[in-house]
Amino acid sequence: MQFDVRGFRPGEGVVRLAVEADDLAMATQRARAQGLAVLSAAPRRALPGLPALRLQRRPRFPLLQFTLELMALLQAGLSLPETLDTLLEKETRSDVRPVLAAMRARMFEGQSFSRVLAELPQAFPVLYVTTVRASERSGDLVESLARYVDYHERLDLVRKKVVSASIYPVALLLLGGLVVLFLLGYVVPRFSSIYAESGRDLPWMSMLLLRWGQGMQAHGAAIGATLLALAVLAAAMARRLLPHGVALLTRIPAVGARLATYHLARFYRSLGMLLRGGTPIVPALGMVAGLLPLHMQQGLVRATQQIREGIVLSDAMAAAGLTTPVAARMLRVGENSGDMAAMMERIAGFHDEELARWIEWFTKLFEPVLMAVIGVVIGAIVILMYLPIFELAGSLG
């Protein structure tokens, strides 16, 4: 969900940002992480009266593609301004050209590359800007960009597995729903007219089903329009209440534990990348706070305060509930070895693999259960339609 955030930034005055977040608190947190003193924040509305329904989605800047092209041109020996010139010349998309043009103009004004990126928060997230800023101190821009690409791909790996594992169940659910709609909207009404002419007494469940068929015959268009309107309204409300739904899912023991693992894996991977780039631990914690849900962000605030007071990272994270047993042990190992960045990336990798195994197990269990449920629903409708015929055949026998 997008939020319009208005705030003050030193050197620029009052600015507006479009921030993608799950709720208002997270949008405010992310805006503050970009150095903005927030004055106001509100959900972006596409249509009056329908705050959660958007007919058009604002195109996103192709950050990964831009980074890969930037790396290729820099490795070919072009300077950074020449690289931006080349990217601008070949670009034809109207939503990307203004961003590249603004970057080129500010580079020729003498601004550093990281400052140019920081002034375009709608295209470049805080983590990307921090990575570039760290590379300006070390002089290894291409290597830092390569680390970000690897980070981005690893971050998307679990998401892609979830999407690929969801394709078959969603297709099965849609197909089963279409079959049920066909039976209720086309077959049942025709059976209801046949049984109405026969004048026989029907079982009460068959009678309910056939009453539905009679209603579809008499008011099919009105019922269809009402169902469609309810479906659109339900989709809009579901989108608006999605953060609350996710919060409810966290209360289910098995699902809540896996969601927490997913958030922690993203959190530790991002934190490890910032530490590898030279960012101190306390500012780094503030930059990646937006990756956690609201209840975990509250724990992170307490952990950050304890770290400022001198408590070691592993103890502060464990006290705030931001570790698993494995992660707590690995953090202690990282503190002893002095390589916290690598250890946090290993924590993220371990949890990603654990989550991938759970997703695979869940889909193997869920698919046959879903097929059984759809089969029972369709079978029940067919049996209720044919039950009077079976009873008639039995009475004749």
Describe this structure in words.
It is a single chain. The chain has 397 residues and is mainly α. Helices cover 73% and strands 6% of the residues. It has helices spanning 24-33, 63-75, 80-90, 97-108, 113-118, 126-138, 141-198, 204-240, 242-249, 253-276, 281-287, 294-308, 313-319, 325-337, 340-396; strands at 2-9, 13-20, 37-43. The chain has a 3-stranded antiparallel beta sheet with strand order 2-1-3. A hairpin with a 3-residue loop joins strand 1 and strand 2. The N and C termini lie far apart (64 Å). Mean pLDDT is 77; it is low at 46-57.
Summed up, the helix count is 15
Whole-number radius of gyration?
Answer: 28 Å
Largest sheet: 3 strands, antiparallel
β-strand number: 3
**Which word captures the global form?**
elongated
Write out the strand line-up for the largest beta sheet, numbering strands in chain order: 2-1-3
Helix % is over 70%
Can you give me a brief rundown of this structure?
The chain has 397 residues and is mainly alpha-helical. 73% of the residues lie in helices and 6% in strands.
What is this structure's SSE topology?
Blueprint: E1 2-9, E2 13-20, H1 24-33, E3 37-43, H2 63-75, H3 80-90, H4 97-108, H5 113-118, H6 126-138, H7 141-198, H8 204-240, H9 242-249, H10 253-276, H11 281-287, H12 294-308, H13 313-319, H14 325-337, H15 340-396
Antiparallel strand pairs: 1-2, 1-3
